[in-house]
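We close this part of the discussion by returning to an individual protein. The encoding preserves chain order, so positions in sequence and tokens coincide. The sequence in question and its structure tokens are set out directly beneath this paragraph:

===
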Amino acid sequence: MKKSLIALAVLAASGAAMAQSSVTMFGIVDTGVTYVNHANAAGDSVYGLTSSGNATSRLGFRGTEDLGGGLKAGFWLEGEIFGDNGNANGFNFQRRSTISLMGNFGEVRMGRELTPSYSKVSGYDLFGQAGIGQFNGWNEWLGANGATGVTADTNNIRSSNMLSYYTPNFGGFTGGLGYGFDEQTTGKAGRYIGGFGAYDNGPLSVTVAYDQRNIGFTLGGLSTAGKHNILTIGASYNLNVAKLIAIAQQSKYEGNAFSGDAKFNNYALGASMPVGAGEFKLQYALYDQKAIDSKAHQLSLGYVHNLSKRTALYGTVAYLKNKDNSNLGLPTKGLTVAGPGLGNNQTGVQVGVRHAF
């Protein structure tokens, strides 16, 4: 009898502990058809299946455990998936791989994830940093020949080996800080530091974000240390009948002894309007590439129709006008699209289905 009571007590305690923990599998599958003209300098067009036209396709697992006293532990593992080819290069958790402690003090995270600055201020992009209509300020402006010593994340969107902290909400004010260790025996290539301060109250939202990553520049076998700094200000105002957004950004590469500092100023203005079960989006972006004394203009029009809370149809049309030495191309996942050639234009059309689970 005593053994039975002890067993019941253990089961009850185990059930209580399990009730205080939760693990969730989640994801998005987004696949569409995309057409882009002038997909290269030769003027060829390309079309086919693409992934993540409305939201980045992903698969993830997250969980929390209540430790008592207002303290919680959590983990988050998330990787990108591709509906067009099923992840030909294999699945990984490079989108996010973190462990965290949460409480009245806020949240402390360790691991790989979006940098605090990008995670907040990128939310002002009406196209959610996905598909051909997205704002392209977080570009690898110098390309592979501009950064050495660090092989990834020079656009400051994500960082590995990062310790980050997010504050609780103080009457609408929030903030976040991140530090990414370079883990180098010599030099600082790969080191990241950045953060944001934001105010969200009713229809108004304003964020100021800044980050910096140590990179290197190379020429003819010689190298020199440098940095990539990004300062971004984002704001939105919800009028109920429409939501207005604005983004102003300066992306600057410093310390390049071979060609000097390089500056890229990027701007966006947009408005979204709910219509029944759908939403129209119109966004204009200007990429003022000071480093090459050239500009590019992008105009994006999109519509999303919600079939349910989890499934939506979408369509986007984007036009990119390069001027002078600018050779930007529209972003696609699943199609090889390059710049249309110096000073040439490019147009893309994208339709697809997004399902969240």
Notes: The chain has two helices and 17 strands. The CA atoms of residues 284 and 299 lie 5 Å apart. The longest helix spans residues 2-19.
